[in-house]
Amino acid sequence: AIEKVTRRFGGLVAVRDVSFSIGAGDLVSLIGPNGAGKTTLFNVLTGQLAPSDGQIRFDGQEIGRRKPNERAALGLGRTFQISQTLTSLSVLENAMIGAFLRHPGLNEAAERAWQALEKVGLSARAQEQAGHLTLGERRRLEVARALAMQPRLLLLDEVMAGLNQTEVTRIVDLVKGLNAEGLTIIVIEHNLKVVRAFASRVLVLDRGALLADGSAGEVLSDQRVVNAYVGRARA
Question: Whole-angstrom Cα distance, residue 201 to residue 20?
C-alpha cells in the first residue's frame, strides 16, 4: 500500500515533515488534536490538495502529481469528515456513484453497489431515499460508496463521529472485518477507546508533524502524546 509519504503543504493547516510507510493489510489509526492536520493529510494523499514538495508512493509508483480520479482508479478510496450523502437519491444510487469508477454499465454498477451495501448492512434499505437514513446509517452508506470503488487502501475520516455506542460498535466491527479480509485501512479517530479496540498501529499528528508512531499501547502511554493530545483535549 502506501510506502512513503513525505509532505510539506502550505495552507491554514500545514502538514510538514510527515514520513511513514504502510504495508498491505495494515489497519492504522491516525489521531491528534483538532487542527493537527489529519484531514489535510488525507486530502494530500487523495489529491484534493496539492503538495509543495515530497513524495507519495503507492505500490511502487509515485502518485503525488496524479489527479484524484487517477488515484481512485489505482485503488485509493475514502470517506469525508462531513457527510457527502446525496439525500435525494436512493441508498443504492448513492453506492452506485462509487461503483461507476470500475463498472460504467448500469447493471454492473448496481450489482457492485448492492454487494457493498450488503457488507455494511444496508442492502434491505437499498431502494429507500437516502435522506431517510439515520446518521449512523449515512456513515455506513459512505463506507459502502467507497467500497463500491473496490479500493486497495480505504481512508476513513472520522466515520464514527457523532454516533452512539451501539452505532460505534457496529462500525468498529465493520472496519475490523474489512481489514480481516485483507483491506488496508487508515482511520482518523478521536475516541481513544476505539483506537485501543483496533489494537493496531497508531500515528499521531501534532501541528502538522508526525509526533509518534507505534502500537496503541505504546503511543497512548507516550508522555508527548498525553501532553499534545489527551492533555489538550481535557483543557
Answer: 12
Q: 168 — phi, psi (to 5°)?
A: -60, -45
**Residue reference for cell 513524495:** 55
DSSP state of 124: G
pLDDT of residue 17: 66
pTM as predicted: 0.89
Q: Minimal CA–CA distance to 234: which of 226, 203, 193? A: 226
Look up residue 61 and give its DSSP letter. Answer: E
pLDDT digits (tens, 9 = 90+) for 116-136: 999 999 999 999 999 999 999
CA atoms of 206 and 56, how far apart (whole Å): 20
Cα–Cα distances (Å) from 69 to 52, 146, 207, 210, in that order, read: 20, 13, 29, 27
Residue 44 is which amino acid? V
CA dihedral 28, 32, 38, 41 (to 10 degrees): -70
> What is the spatial distance between Cα 72 and Cα 30, in angstroms, rounded to a whole number?
20
Helix (H, G, I), strand (E, B) or coil at 11: coil
pLDDT digits (tens, 9 = 90+) for 58-105: 888 889 889 999 999 999 999 998 888 999 999 999 999 999 999 999
C-alpha span between 131 and 88 (Å, rounded): 6
CA dist 214 to 13, 30, 46, 218, Å?
A: 24, 11, 24, 6
Please give the Cα distance from 64 to 57 (Å, whole number). 7
